[in-house]
Amino acid sequence: MAQTERPVRADAARNRARVLEVAYETFAAEGLSVPIDEIARRAGVGAGTVYRHFPTKEALFQAVIADRMGRIIDDGHALLESEQPSEALFMFMRSMVLQWGAADRGLVEALAGVGIEINAAAPEAEEDFLSLLADLLRAAQEAGAVRLDVGVSEVKTLMVGCQAMQGYNAELAERVTEVALDGLRGK
Question: What's the average model confidence in pLDDT over 89-102?
């Protein structure tokens, strides 16, 4: 006889959602070093509740990053569909650096491989992100807007470097990002 899964209680679903929300806000503002016990305290639940849903910090981060990366990937695909192919990659990189990078320290650390390796924590999110970058890059290259000798790994490295500028000198981050984007442009 097959076992059926019990439905999740409403309070358990609310607690899980609250923990994810607080974890995202905490990781975004303070990075990945915040202990699970502190996230539980801020969410107004016991540590046992967090561990019941997310047995490790990596599992919690995986859930947070998968959600955030999903949103970023959806935004990138929307740009690819709504903008000129020659500009979609540049707009996406600007948003990753100046919008997401400025507001989400945890995501920046994950993309850079600091603290928790994104490929290990959320492999599908990393694959989908790199696939999106490849689509954006290919469209821009086919439009003649980006150099043909640049690949996805160089684009991601430039983006992570520009995101790091946010922490180093936020006032220059936009200018440095534009200089990096100019280096990508086709002749």
Answer: 82
